[in-house]
Design goal:
Length: about 650
Amino acid sequence: MPAKKPDRVSPPTDSVPPHLSLGEVGAAALLVGVAFLAYAPALGAGFIWDDGRAITDNPVLQSPHPLLDIWRGRGDADYFPLKTTILWLLYQIFDAQAPPYHVFNVGIHAANAVLLWRVLRRLAIPGAWFAGLIFLVHPTHVESVAWVAECKNTLSTLFGLLAVLAWLARDAQRRARYLASLVLFVAGLLCKTHLVILPPVLLLCSWWQHRPAAERDAPAAEASPWRRRALARAAPFFLVALLLGAVTIRFQYHRAIAEYQLPVGGLACRVANAGKAVWWYLGKAVSPVNLWYEMPSRPIETEPEALAVLAGTRKANPAPPWPRGKLTAWPLVAIYPRWRVTEPVWYDYLPALAVVGLFAWAMRRRNGRGRGVCFAASYFLLALLPVLGLLKMSYMRAAWVADHFQYLADIGVIAFGCAAGARLWGQSRRRSRALPGGARAREGMETLRGFPSQIPRLVAGAAALLVGAFTAATFSRAADFRSELTLWTDTVAKNPDAWQAQVRLGAALLARNEAAQAAEHFARGAQLRPDNADARNNLGLALVTLGRVEEGIAEYRESLRLDPAQFHAYANLGDLFAKLQRHAEAAEAYRAAIRLRPDLAPLHFRLGAVLLDNGQIDEAIASLRRADALAPNHPEVTAALARALSRREPGR
């Protein structure tokens, strides 16, 4: 009986040439070309969602000392100063022209695909280049690539992959590359702190490189030095991750979320939701249009009602004693329908228990055939851990899950699937070549156990079909991100109960002077979220545009009742009263807006114009001079100030 062959040992990392060959340069260029082909509709797109807040309307980018303000953390809800610095540099070059920002982000995404290929090859994982290609054209990544503000995803991944490559180096410059890995890791964290997962991922990579064949026969004392060395090398990474992770949590809780109440519930609710989210993201990684089994929990119609249940001021709706749900296909959408668990029942924990059970099974087989499953599953869960909702995130006001949250995590699923396909393809080719010609023809497709000659063709055909389908889906999905109108039209069509999408679609329609349709969407958004001040303010603006002035004023006042810090509503009231020649009320509204945002020159200018029309010359001059100081040499401000000075009484 032949002796059992030892497990395959991965080649040392320095066996991978540090420089690309001519063929590898061509393979990398092909990845870049595919990236720009798949994302062609997004290259000429405009700004969407919060791109304006990050770029065009970001006061930090236009402040007298932008870099100082950026690195002090002023103006942003999160502390991602390197990302903001890069956007500032782009702003200095391209100003508010959106296409160059999109070209930049697509280029970074293409670089990530190339780097992923190199990392997987360094780890001796089969199918590395194909994994980079699938990562490149995976449709769930469109949200991270076509949405400029999410360049924090692509940038942090870029620095993270570079850090992994430097960590895996084993040549004469190993110490220098270790320091480079640490610096790159810090850079990635300063783009987005989702990269806090990198230290345990580096340990996973070290564990993967040390195959178990030698360790099974070696004493524990001989097998453990690499673990101690890896832990010692990773210690500074963990310290940096803890520090910047704490900074991000503070910014999230005190700025991004602040006084906003999120209906996330206690630990039990969060664990139940996290278990569902893991399976959701796995389904989206495997198939962008995945079937999702909706287990009925306690249905809560509105977010305020959910908050009331969690606060104990309202009883939860009764839950069925047994899970009775339905299969639902959820296509890619900017805001997904949210499931809600206010008071979990026993079956709400089943997804989380299934995750724990499968992970335990993989861990028991980590040194055998399940080693690859353990590596992929461990990475996938680590990459999802920061975004599963165990800690509060400001995005939870929109949904529990989002495509841009799985940009990093998809790598584990993609690499595992491509490695399995590459191994099947390679084994079947070797089996096919070992058979004589006649035997090949006789075996045909009689058995899969023998890896017949047709299997390489089937694997290659399936791979080509997958790439084609994903590329087409990415191209189509990128077209949805061309403008606010296309994005929110698509979102409302797929998820009409997303109040944010209704409000933003209304704003896009109002910008096109389609006030009647805009008012419908604003009204629907206010109905879905009655306590949202923005929806009321926008509804008031649409009603005023339609000539329904008194209804519009009522909506403005309701917006201010819901949120007294809503300076937009004060500004809109001021504009309306100024148009109606109600100068005293207009001046009062503008002053209220200025108390909230004294740095905005347009508010001072409008106040000065109203005061000038009302004959309050000295006060008008003071307001216009303030506007001139905030916006020097602005022609309208300069002309208004000149008119005010000309009307001033001589000698004053």
